[in-house]
Write a structure and sequence with these properties.
Elements (H helix, E strand, L loop, with lengths): L2 H20 L3 E2 H8 L3 H13 L3 E4 L4 E4 L1 H6 L6 H19 L2 E8 L2 E8 L12 E3 L4 H8 L3 H13 L10 H12 L3 E5 L12 E8 L8 E8 H32 L7
Antiparallel strand pairs: 1-3, 2-3, 4-5, 4-9, 5-6, 7-8, 8-9
Helix pairs in contact: 1-3, 2-3, 5-9, 6-8
GO molecular function: DNA binding; DNA-binding transcription factor activity
Pfam family, one: HTH_IclR
Protein name: Putative transcriptional regulator
Length: about 270
Amino acid sequence: MTRNSVKSAERVFQILEHFARTREPARLSEVAASLDHPVSSVSALLKCMVDQGYMNFDDRTRRYMPAARIAHLGSWLNFDAYEQTAVLEAMYRLREAANESVVLATPTDIYLEYIDTLHGWEGINIRRGTRRLLVQSGTGWLFLARMDLAQALAIYRRTIELGELRQDEFSETEFLKKLIEHRDMDISFVHARELLRPTAHWGAAMISMIIPTPPGHRGLAMGVHGLAERLETKRARVSDLFHEIAAELEADLAQTAGSAPAATAP
């Protein structure tokens, strides 16, 4: 596969992510400007998506919108049943108690992706779909510390190989030290200033915890995000809430598993 083909594939996903964020039809110029890509490139990709039935185009308004066929592609992945009920309820509860932004994250390749967000009332927010390097986030270190060492090292080395991080600024020895620090840690508290890569808010911090999930479900972590000095004063209360939420989710999952019909032998 050529580099141009890879770039085109990346841009297709970025186009879809644009619509996932805005949730409204958009003109070609709006999509291109949002992604900072050449209009000619975005135009060719949108036309291809229309031809394949993955994008609708309104001749009257000159606007594009993803077609229903897009939704069908992932309809067999039943993440929403758990994430949009018990987990979302816990996120609202956490936001109400902490009065800060709350995020839900999952590991994706070498990244930590924020798949859901509830904005707080203090103006420090993370946009859904935002990605951070697993090896450069407190939540990422929690996930990595629970992986096999070989798997965690493979993610670190791939991050270096892809040029997302340089070995001279974050060595393998430093990475292993972070893994050891987080191995027995259930809650992470990390200031943005501790990280090497820029974030949206250098004065912010995040308290995060990996939460229970059903068998076979993607890994999930919940985080509370806000100004570091505010979170410092709320740290103990948020940590207590995380433990309460984790225990409740664990109990709900156990109850659901216990009430499920027993599998029959073939």
